[in-house]
Amino acid sequence: MIGVISYLVFFATVASILAIAVLGLNLHWGYTGLFNGGVVAFFGAGAYGTLMLGGAPQPHLGGFEWPWIFALIGGVAAAAVLAWIVGLLTLRLRHDYLAIATFGVAVAFENTMRNAQGFAGGAQGIRGFERPFREFAGNGLGWNLLYLALVLVALVATYLFLERLARAPFGRLLRAIREDEEAARSLGKSPARIRLTSFVTGSAIMGLAGGLYGTFYAFVSPQDVLPILTFQIWAMLIVGGAGNNRGAVAGAFLIWGAWTASGWGLSRFAPVDWQLYAGSIQWVLIGSVIVGMLMWRPEGLFPERVGEDRPQTGRTT
Amino acid sequence: MIQHLIDGVLVGAIISLGAIGLTMVMHILRFANFSHAELLSVGAYAAFVLGPLIAGLSGALEAGIGPLSLSWAVALAVPLAMAITGATAVLLDRIVFQRVRAKGGELSMVFASFGVALVMRNVIGLIFGLSPHLYSRDIAFAQIISYDPLIMVKPDQVAVLVLALILMLALHLLLSRTTFGYSLRAVAENPDLAQVTGVDLKAAIRAVWLIGGALAAAAGVFYGLTNQIIPVMGRDLVLPIFAATIAGGIGSVYGAVLGGFLVGIAGNLALLVLPPGYTPSLPFVIIIAVLLLRPHGLFGEARA
Question: Transmembrane segments in this chain: where (chain A) (predicted)?
């Protein structure tokens, strides 16, 4: 029984962390119409940043032993800076450039982390991170429960922040640019600047997810920033419904559940000589989910509800 | 140094062939097709299957052509692989991209192309296994061209370069000398106006997929010939091919050719100063450099 609870706590923690990243992607794609092909780079910047700033001294760069919360903020800032650079270069061009550049930044990020031994620990990654609150929560289930609560607080905070943003004038502006850029421009708005704000904010949220992920495992390596994570996070948003934050969170739990279940099923029931191909089968499944949803139900299971976006305070326009 | 330059030109020819098709699709359908590089795998594996089948017709075909490790059978399989891959591209458009286009915007197309790439790459891996294959077990010996500085070139590499240049010339003639070429350009410039003047839009889109797929197949076979045939070749080539289209300017066929050579040469020259582990990052550096210096590429035009 305790094993089941432990596992559920573990599952919920990872799913909630991924849900935060999905919310960040929703700001990009759902609200602003930006394609982010390198979610994992911003997630990774958050994780690496947090562990480098908060970790114990290491042979590689980092190990500044910052208090956890400051290290986490530093990780978020690292993701934001990375997004700012990529966005500045690409957002004034047609949308393909952002798609290609973000995909490229993810490839380059993983590749650099894997090779830069002196900078980020290379293929061995970064370990030696002091988990926060260990003094009074211990190391076992107690800590896991406390951390789950912490992650849930972060998830709810992100959710509320984005919901407010969606209803604020800024959210309406984002949708205006997504639907008709020329019209927004004619009203004196600067689409490039607003897109950059949205891109950096969404990437910072992905960085937050990465920082929480790195803290949870107290370890990050190039294996944590492989492209598969980007596709998983996309599938979560596409299934959940782009433009709907509740859908994004539901999609995260659904897809992460399906992913772990399919992985478990394949390792349990697939013939031994198929085990080598279990990864390939899972890739085919996630690719099919993405394509199938876009073909048959592009609005996702929980479509965007435009009516809700109206200000509820009774303001008249 | 010269050796790296030569290797770069040979790799560049392969990247160019891939980039031509990609830039054409991006120009006419206006979306970044991340599944394009998987067409290279389709072509490479199609020739890998067809080669032995053709060799089965006559034993004489199994022999290599002159000093090449490329056999007559595999060489004859190339046009067939190009046709199969072109047809695959058309089919993918019919089954997936057309529907996504009808339901969503360009952004959905980009997402869908990633999904298609994942499915294609891994289905190929499931069918043919994850380990690499070769067209021929014969070892292709490099010829020493010069001892000081030491320069070595494999006959296969020269053959690949010549064939790639012939294909590019053929495409150039097709685009610049035929009515069909004009109608393709008209569609790219202004689809509505082209239709008014009697160009069949659907046929034009089909033709672009067909050409893009065929050239990708040739690139895939050439890559397999000079490296190896492996399911992840699309994954490894997608970023260099995109870098070539951006360097050349999205939509420009000639830009894609130049961009391909640029990416190939830059990638090989970088080996002089960077550890080889960083090679996968290089296309990204090129993309960033192009965006900083000349955002619309060598031949591109600003277009929303």
Answer: 7-29, 35-56, 68-89, 141-162, 196-219, 225-242, 249-270, 276-296
Q: Which helix (H) or strand (E) holds A150?
A: helix A141-167
Cβ atoms of B242 and B287 within 8 Å: the answer is yes
Nearest CA in chain A to B120: A284
Q: How far apart are the first and last CA of chain A?
A: 57
Any B CB within 8 A of A180 CB: no
Per DSSP, A27 falls in state: I
Contact between A167 and A312 (Cβ < 8 Å): yes
A107: Cβ contacts below 8 Å, ≥ 6 apart: A38, A227, B239, B280, B281, B283, B284
- Predicted pLDDT of residue A185: 83
How many CA atoms within 13 Å lie on the side-chain side of A253?
13
Query: Hey, are the CB atoms on A281 and B122 less than 8 Å from each other?
Result: yes
Report the residue count for chain A: 317
Q: Do B99 and A94 touch (CB under 8 A)?
A: no
Chain B contact present for A288, CB below 8 A: yes
**Mutation for B interface: A29, A85, A100, most B CBs within 10 A:** A100
- With 0-12 / 13-18 / 19 or more C-beta atoms within 10 angstroms meaning exposed / middle / buried, residue B244 is buried
CA distance B140 to chain A (A): 31
How does residue A288 score in pLDDT terms, banded at 50, 70 and 90?
A: very high
Q: A20 and A31 in contact (C-beta within 8 Å)?
A: no
CB contact under 8 A, A93 and B111: no
Q: Would you say B283 and B246 are in contact if contact means Cβ atoms under 8 Å apart?
A: no
Any idea which of A188-192, A242-246, B254-258, B281-285 has the lowest mean pLDDT?
Answer: A188-192
Q: A99 touching B, CB under 8 A?
A: yes
Tokens 């002091």, residue located: A130
- Residues A9 and A148: their CA atoms lie apart, in Å, by 7
For residue B54, give both structure tokens.
Answer: 């053709």
The string of DSSP letters for B69-131 reads S-BHHHHHHHHHHHHHHHHHHHHHIIIIIHHHHHHS-HHHHHHHHHHHHHHHHHHHHHHH-SS
